Every structure is written in C-alpha cells, then in structure tokens.
Amino acid sequence: MGIFSRRQTAVIEPNPAVGTGTSVTEAALRGVTLDPALRALTGRWTVDRPHSRIGFSVRHAMVTTVRGAFTDYDSTLYFDGARPSESRADLVIRVASVDTGVEQRDAHLVGPDFFDARRFPEMVFRSTSTVHEGGESFRMSGDLTIRDVTRPVDLQLDYLGSVLDPFGFERAGFDGTTTIDRTEWGLVYNQRLKAGGTMVSEKVRLQFDISAVRSTS
Question: pLDDT digit string (tens) for 183-205?
C-alpha cells in the first residue's frame, strides 16, 4: 500500500523487482486455493478517496470508543491475483489531517502529546510481503513509521468484490484492519482514572476501507 497526498485519487505503481512471486502452482502445493476471479484483478489501481476511509478507533475513559480518520494522504497499490506475493501497497498520511469531529481533540492529537505534527508530519506504511490465507483473505505485512519510529505490523486484508460501476469504471473493494500498541511508537501520553485504568487506551485499531478503481494509464 502506498501512502497518500491531498489528491482525490492515488495511483499505485507496479514494481516488478518487489516480491518473491508465489505462483498458482505453489499456492496449490500449500493447499491454498486461488479464486480465478482474483487473477483478473491483477494490475495497478487508484484509491478513490471520496469513497475510501483511513481511520482508527480507540477506547476512551474505559467506557466508550472514539473514532477518527485521516483525510490527507498519498497511496500506491498493485494487486496481483495470480501471484499474491507480488501485491504491494504504500501509504503516506499527513497526520495534521486527523479528524475526530471535535476541533479541540484534533488539536491535542496533532500536538506534542501525540503525533507532534510539526516535527513528524507524516505517518507511513510500506508493505514488505503479502500472503494469501485462503478464499478472499490476505495478510499484508509491512513497516509502520510514526514519529520516526518504524516497527513491523501485520494487516488483515479482505477482498470485498469488484464491479463495473455506472460510469464504466472497474471498481474493487478491500477492507484492512490491524491493532497496534501506540506506546511502541512513542505515543505514551495518558491520564490515570481514580477508579483505575486510563483515559486513552494503549491499543488502537487501524482501519483501511478502500474503494479502488483500475488505472487506465
């Protein structure tokens, strides 16, 4: 997955040098069945930003969940339905674009207690490998960088289907999720509650709801 800019769509460029190349035969030897329909999706895709969401959710005060999203990002995506290991993605997020629906909270998130956007303006994910786990499920591993700290993460990636939309564009949907411990990236700010626990959970769920359009260039 590639990282994003303020463009309405983000083009993912193929890189033939990347990936180990798991063939359909190799997948069969491992007992993993590849859907022939997935093979037809091989190629470059653009992320349709108005219909996609790069979001997160975190428990607040132990009793509720706060949700937010990043609205400014650049991304690249190359999907290989015949050789899933060739699939890859890069994502670059401008952390100052965080939007939780509360202006005061957003200002706190971009400040020194959390993202410190002036010093570390971007959060980056770059995939390192992709494994077909069966059916329409994949595991995409990669490096996530926040506040100049880079650590590995595994992203559960599910293919949701494809369709030819009314405007003649081939469109495919993907849903990706992972949960991280924010303190491992230096996001350690918190406040203790008198009854026990903390104001902000250390566990953060990242969500990638992607609507991608096949690139014609």
Answer: 999 999 888 887 777 889 999 99
Residues whose CB falls within 8 Å of the CB of residue 36, separated by 6 or more in sequence, listed in order = none
- Please answer whether residues 48 and 72 qualify as being in contact, where contact means their C-beta atoms are separated by less than 8 angstroms: no
Coil/strand/helix, residue 106: helix
Strands (E), the chain: 9-11, 43-48, 53-60, 64-70, 73-79, 88-94, 98-99, 122-134, 137-146, 149-164, 170-181, 200-214
The H or E element that residue 29 is part of is: helix 24-29
37: part of which helix (H) or strand (E)? helix 36-39
Alpha carbon 193 to its chain's center: 32
Q: How far apart are CA 158 and CA 185, in angstroms?
A: 26
Picking from 167, 144, 173, 169, the residue whose alpha carbon sits closest to that of residue 56 is 144
Q: What is the pTM of this model?
A: 0.81
Q: What is the pLDDT of residues 101-131, one digit of tens each?
A: 999 999 999 999 999 999 999 999 999 999 9
43 contacts 216 by C-beta, under 8 angstroms? no
The one-letter amino acid at 206: L
